[in-house]
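Q: What would this chain look like folded?
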Amino acid sequence: MDTAARAPETAQTLDRGLRLLHLVADAPNGLTVTEAASRLGIGRAAVYRLVGALTGHGMLRRDGAGRLRLGAGVLQLARRAQPLLAEGALPALRRLAEQAGATAHLTVVEGGEGVALAVVEPSWTSFHVAYRTGSRHPLERGAAGRAILAGRAGDAGPVSTSGELQSGAYGVAAPVLGVPGMEASVGVVSLAPLDVAVVGAQVTAAAEAVAAALS
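A: My prediction, written as structure tokens:
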């Protein structure tokens, strides 16, 4: 078979491998080969070939029950990518923190939870929330996670919450849309109530700036 004929087959295999990684990433309890084959619409033999290649590169692993789970190779790639994502988002987060007078953050989805990837505190306030990079929380709680869920439903508007993650803290966040392979939100958290009309517009603009920087 010549190179031209093999190219479409190679692209199809790559596409299936990437789809398999996404399926496993979205399955908290892992996937069996049979489940993966059904969702990909291909035979078990083809899935076994994909698993063999991805396992060899550390992207997938089999747990004690034989279910497919993400391997350490994916985590290593993610750790290398995260500083680049954070760096790209920092200018917009700095502007947002200064505008809102509140701690600004970029939150991404990892393992079904929201993780604070980058945090910027305002320079001119006497008091502000100390929000640690790497903090995790359920997507169903807090403005950052709720904004991500809203983004999944196609809603780009700001989301506000009060006291869901920390008593006495107020949050406003908006989803970062249009960045392939990433679910995220940009938001602020404050010790005082926030004017959602004003801060919501600032947060939405910052989310759009981050999307443009990372796309």
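The radius of gyration is 20 Å.
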